[in-house]
UniProtKB/TrEMBL annotation:
It comes from Harpegnathos saltator. Residues 1-25 are annotated as: Disordered. Keywords: Cytoplasm, Magnesium, Metal-binding, Nucleus. It comes from the Eukaryota. One of its GO terms (molecular function) is metal ion binding. Residues 1-17 have a biased composition (Basic residues). It is found in: Cytoplasm; Nucleus. InterPro entries: Translin_C, Translin_fam, Translin_N, Translin_sf. This is Translin-associated protein X. Gene3D superfamilies: Translin, domain 1 (1.20.58.190), Translin, domain 2 (1.20.58.200). Belongs to the translin family. One of its GO terms (cellular component) is nucleus. The keyword S-adenosyl-L-methionine does not apply.
Amino acid sequence: MSQGKGGRKNRGQHHNKDKINVGDNGREVLESIDENNPVISQFRVYAADLDAKHDRYERIFKVNRDVAIESKRIIFLLHTIDKESKRDIVLAGAKLRLDSVAKKLFRDIALELDGQDAYQFHRAYRAGLEEYVEALTFYEYLENGGCTRDWTKLEEALTYYTTVKPSESSSETIDLEEKPVTKMTRMLVTPTDYIMGMADLTGELMRKCINNLAVGDISSCYHTCNFVRQMYIAFLGYTSACSHEMNKKVFTLKQSLAKMEKTCYTIKVRGSEIPKHMLADVAIRGTAEDYTTEDDEGYQGF
C-alpha cells in the first residue's frame, strides 16, 4: 500500500517535458540519435505543431469561460425585471453587454480560429456559445415575446471584417493603386449549438413564470407556458435521431414544462380562493413534489 501511495504522490513529477527520465539503455539510445536525421527532424516539427495546437485550445477555452460567466450575469440581470418601469433600462443594459461579448470575446475566438480547422477547437468554446445563446434568446423573449432570430442570424452577427493594408517591401516597387483588402473571419456556429442553447432557455422561462406569479402578473404565466409548450412540441420532432446529451436537455425541458403547467393549473383552479400574494408560495410547494415521468404521445426517446 505504501508503494502505491508513494507512486501517486510522485506521479506529477514525470510530466516535465524538458526532463526525460530514462534508464541506462535508453540514455545510450538518446545519445546515439542523429539530430540531422530527416525522420527525427520531421517528428520535431510534429511536436511543435501539437504544442501550438494545445496552446491555441487553451487560449480559446479561457475566453470560453469568460463568455459563459458574462452570459450568466446577463441572465441574472434580465431576471431583475419585476416592474414595467425597470423593463427598458434593464433590456438596454443587457443589450449593451450582449453586443460587447459578441464584439470582443467572440472576436478573440474567431481570430484564433482564423486559418484553422474550427471543428478541432469546437469543444473548447461550445459551452460558452450555448450559454450565450441562452442569454440572447432570453433577452429576445423579454423584448418581443418570442425568439425571432435563427442560427444563421447569430452566425452573421459573429462574422468580423478587418481591413488589411497591402504588404510593403523595400525590395519591391509598391503599387500606389493597390487598395486595402477586407479580410473576413467568423465563428463556427452549428445549428445544434443554437438548439442546445434554446433548450436551456426553458429553465429560465420557468423561473420567469414563477417570478411573474410572485408579482401578480398572471397573464404572463399563461403566455410563457404556451410558448414553452410549443418549444417542447418542436423538440419532440427534432430528437428522433440525436445525441444522448440532447435527450437529457429535452427531458429537463419536459420537467420545466410540467412545473409551469402545474403552476397555471393552480392559478386557474385555486386562484379565486388564494390571495395573490400567496399564489407563488402555493405554486412553488406544488411543483416541488417528485416529478414522475410518463410516456408522452408514445415518444420513447428518453
